[in-house]
Amino acid sequence: MAKPKTRPTRREPTYAAVAKPVAVEAPPPAPSAPAPPPAAVDVRGRNVSGRPWKQPPKSRSSSLKMTQPRKSWDAKKRDREARQRAREKEAELVEARKERIAEQKRKTEEKRSRKRRNEFRNAQYQVITNDKTVKSLSKKKLRQIKRTRVAADGEVELVDAYAPMHGPRAKRVRGGK
């Protein structure tokens, strides 16, 4: 068997040191069973880094994959029903959460409307009857002025001076009906 070609490493110089032969007597063979035939030796060289190569794989990677045993029809049916119950439970929880959020929104809106009503009731205000007074005010003063408006639900509310006349999206009509 020919020796595989390898590149020399730093540890192995290119020159070879000559070793002197030493006479060693071999012990007599032991009277035992005949020796097994020599196994195939995997002769591998060394790479440039000097590290030993990887060990050859002992088994194929496909044999490492574990396969699940096949399920019976009843087991599949049970699993399917369990998944269905889990989905229904999840849907119930989501619905309950949506209802909780809607209830919170409703309560918050009621609280806001109560607060607006109470502010309007307790407000101290001065009525400006002369339009010329309002027209001559600066923008900064107009920001402080509020006017009353009747909302769609019949409540009287305080709004900014430039707010639309009726409803949240109504436009002011100038010189019209």
From TrEMBL:
<feature type="compositionally biased region" description="Low complexity">
    <location>
        <begin position="16"/>
        <end position="25"/>
    </location>
</feature>
<dbReference type="InterPro" id="IPR026570">
    <property type="entry name" value="CCDC86"/>
</dbReference>
<dbReference type="GO" id="GO:0005730">
    <property type="term" value="C:nucleolus"/>
</dbReference>
<keyword id="KW-0175">Coiled coil</keyword>
<keyword id="KW-0158">Chromosome</keyword>
<comment type="function">
    <text>Required for proper chromosome segregation during mitosis and error-free mitotic progression.</text>
</comment>
<keyword id="KW-0539">Nucleus</keyword>
<dbReference type="GO" id="GO:0005694">
    <property type="term" value="C:chromosome"/>
</dbReference>
<feature type="compositionally biased region" description="Polar residues">
    <location>
        <begin position="58"/>
        <end position="70"/>
    </location>
</feature>
<feature type="compositionally biased region" description="Basic and acidic residues">
    <location>
        <begin position="71"/>
        <end position="112"/>
    </location>
</feature>
<keyword id="KW-0164">Citrullination</keyword>
<keyword id="KW-0597">Phosphoprotein</keyword>
<protein>
    <recommendedName>
        <fullName>Coiled-coil domain-containing protein 86</fullName>
    </recommendedName>
</protein>
<feature type="region of interest" description="Disordered">
    <location>
        <begin position="1"/>
        <end position="123"/>
    </location>
</feature>
<feature type="compositionally biased region" description="Pro residues">
    <location>
        <begin position="26"/>
        <end position="39"/>
    </location>
</feature>
